[in-house]
Amino acid sequence: MKARRDVFQAIADPTRRAIIGLLAGQTLTLNTVAGNFNISQPAISKHLRILTECGLVTVVKQGRERHCTASLQALQEVIQWAEQYRAFWNSRLDTLEDLLNEAE
């Protein structure tokens, strides 16, 4: 059985991040998504496959077209990971601010 890709792998690529941004507010056909990029449709399909495997995009076939929708709930994993660093740096910056205020 093939291991499921993780969301970090998906957002590591700028084209995939752009696809997520494009789909964040709307459902688009595969051809419409591909039309927004200066790369081949097979390359876009590969990016969409990776995004689908990690749960960031859902592709539904309707007739002859494939409709792509963003599933941004999967980004919650990234938010939780980044949150620990935000809390760390906020604490460090608060300490720095206290030190600077004491120096004045």
Automatic annotation (TrEMBL):
InterPro entries found in the cross-reference section: ArsR-like_HTH, HTH_ArsR_DNA-bd_dom, WH-like_DNA-bd_sf, WH_DNA-bd_sf
Gene3D superfamilies, sorted: Winged helix-like DNA-binding domain superfamily/Winged helix DNA-binding domain
CDD domains given in the database record: HTH_ARSR
Residue span, HTH arsR-type domain: 1-90
Domain of life: Bacteria
Any Pfam family: HTH_5
GO MF annotations, alphabetized: DNA-binding transcription factor activity
SUPFAM superfamilies according to UniProt: Winged helix' DNA-binding domain
Name used for this protein in its record: Transcriptional regulator
Lineage, broadest ranks: Bacteria, Pseudomonadati, Bacteroidota, Chitinophagia, Chitinophagales
